[in-house]
Amino acid sequence: MDYFLDNRNTLTFSHNFTDGRFSTDEKQDQVYLTAAKLTDHLGYRTSDNNADFQRNQSQFLFKHKFAKPGKELNADVNYAWSKNNDFTRILNTYQNPDGSPFAPDNLVHNIGNSKNDQVTIQVDYTDPRGENAKLETGLRTYINNYSSVFDALSINNGNSIKLPLSNNYKYQEMINAAYITYTDKIGSIGYQLGLRAEYSKFDGNLVDSAFKFGYQYPKDFGNLFNALFPSIFLNKKLSDDDELQLNYTRRIRRPNFWQMNPFVDINDPLNLRQGNPSLTPEFTNSFELNYNKTYTGGNFLGVLYYRLSTDEITQYSDTITTAQFEQLNNAAVDPNAILNTFINASSEHNWGAEFTLQQKFGSNFDITPTVNMQYTKVNAKVDETDLSNEGFNWEAKLTTNYKISSPSPVWNKLGFQVVGEYESPEVIPQGKRKERYSIDVALRKDFLKDNKASVTVAVNDVLNSHRFGAIYDTENFYQDFFRRRNVRSARITFTWKFGKSDFNLFKKERGNGGEDMMRDS
């Protein structure tokens, strides 16, 4: 809803309601082998989950346009809250190869609920200064409060035993930031200078044990540089069709809650997950040299880059200790299970080159291939163990679009899209990530006057190959695994546009530019 106070001031209000419920059924077959790779015993695990959730989000926007063209002030207040409840029943059974019982069945009930509210306040000011110059500045505050109660109960002969996996926690995340950028030209060289200052704080609390964790940046004046993030963008027009750009940016990546929470996740009894409350944010200094060439029928973009990350957040895995196994014994965890957590590597270096070509063939067919080649060197150490690793990796993506122009109303305005992606193996501190690849296809038909309606048929992951995995090769264990979040899927979407509504607000919130049949809505 928009309310126009006058020709220079506008108020906008929007609200989103979400209410839903879902259930999941998981089945897992397990085969336990001896050192000679003979079957020792079998396991079967079922997990049934039911959950419901509610989410609400309100947004207030105020825009003031000054008499000077392009000069404006925008203020945005966003409040969101949510809650959810879930119940999971996990049953583990074990058998000898001949079908006789190997061990007693194990039953676990997980019961949880959570609440979350978020407030974001942002003010942005833009002031053009002549033909090429522009000043932009703003403030932003983000506060996120979250609380959760999770009880894990072992059920034996009708008796419930609360497991150490139970987790009752609260946390507050706060980020305050201010920025200023100035854009102008000196002769044929354009530039943009920017600086963002930030104060961030994370306070986590395990209520049952009174254990507290989190971080604060900067901690004091001695760490003031950790709060400053400069950026420099320089560009020069070599000709009407050629442009050269040199960039430098400094960024921060904060650990999220699950990377810090010491709670142990046993959804996979052989691969446990646990956060590291000692994690700190990582910082990245990025240098890029870009060359852009526009020509008849296409465009070429070449990028050379170097990125240095300090305190890189990366995964670390090791087998569980005897004490950890005894603590989790009632939860059907394997004594040789691997515990996956996170650490701060001392540094990571990335040297790379990326090339993108946009090429049209006539008015109905175009292709966009992208190739990214990178050499990575990770420096990491845990206690006395050196986890450093280095190696080369590359990835490629090809997007093709074809639209039929035909006198026949059946074939006319029928469009096809194919997207293929490939990522080669990539080094990590204890091994390498496995290769990934997938192909998506889509078919779209526009019809009615001015293409007011369309039908899209899209198939994701045609080869059913999109999976992610890794190989860990350490002194203590060797593991080769892969997982998948989604399997091949198909959907049909019908779109009908009518009236003269202005959907700029919704486009702004989505931030989706360009047409993509795979995500058509």
List keywords for this structure.
521 residues; 3% helix; four-stranded antiparallel β-sheet; single chain; 23-stranded mixed β-sheet; mainly beta
What is shown here, in short?
The chain has 521 residues and is mainly beta. The protein contains three helices and 29 strands.
Structure description:
The protein is mostly beta strands and 521 residues long. It has three helices and 29 strands. It has helices at residues 257-260, 322-328, 504-510, and strands at 2-4, 9-33, 39-65, 72-95, 101-129, 133-156, 159-162, 167-186, 189-206, 211-217, 228-237, 242-253, 264-265, 271-274, 282-295, 298-319, 338-361, 365-379, 381-382, 385-386, 389-404, 414-423, 426-428, 431-433, 436-447, 453-460, 468-473, 478-483, 489-496. The longest helix has 7 residues, at 322-328. The two termini are 22 Å apart. Mean pLDDT is 88; it is low at 505-514.
Write the layout of secondary structure elements.
Layout (H helix, E strand, L loop, with lengths): L1 E3 L4 E25 L5 E27 L6 E24 L5 E29 L3 E24 L2 E4 L4 E20 L2 E18 L4 E7 L10 E10 L4 E12 L3 H4 L3 E2 L5 E4 L7 E14 L2 E22 L2 H7 L9 E24 L3 E15 L1 E2 L2 E2 L2 E16 L9 E10 L2 E3 L2 E3 L2 E12 L5 E8 L7 E6 L4 E6 L5 E8 L7 H7 L11
Parallel strand pairs: 14-17
Antiparallel strand pairs: 1-2, 2-3, 3-4, 4-5, 5-6, 6-7, 6-8, 8-9, 9-10, 9-11, 11-12, 12-15, 13-14, 15-16, 16-17, 17-18, 18-21, 19-20, 21-22, 22-25, 23-24, 24-27, 25-26, 26-29, 27-28
